[in-house]
Amino acid sequence: MLDFDLFQTNEDTPALITSMVTILLSFFLSSMIAITYKFTNSSFEKRNHLLQTLVLISMVASAIMLAIGDSLAVGLGMLGALSIIRFRTAVSDPRNITFIFASLGIGISCGVLAFNVAIIGTLFFCLIAIFFRYTPWEAKNKISGNLHVRYQTKQFSSGKIQKLIIPYTSTNSIIEINTFRKTRNQKNKKVFRNEEVVLFIEISTIEHLQELLLKLKSTPGIVQYKFINNVNIGKL
Question: How far apart are alpha carbons 81 and 77 in whole angstroms?
Answer without folding.
Answer: 6
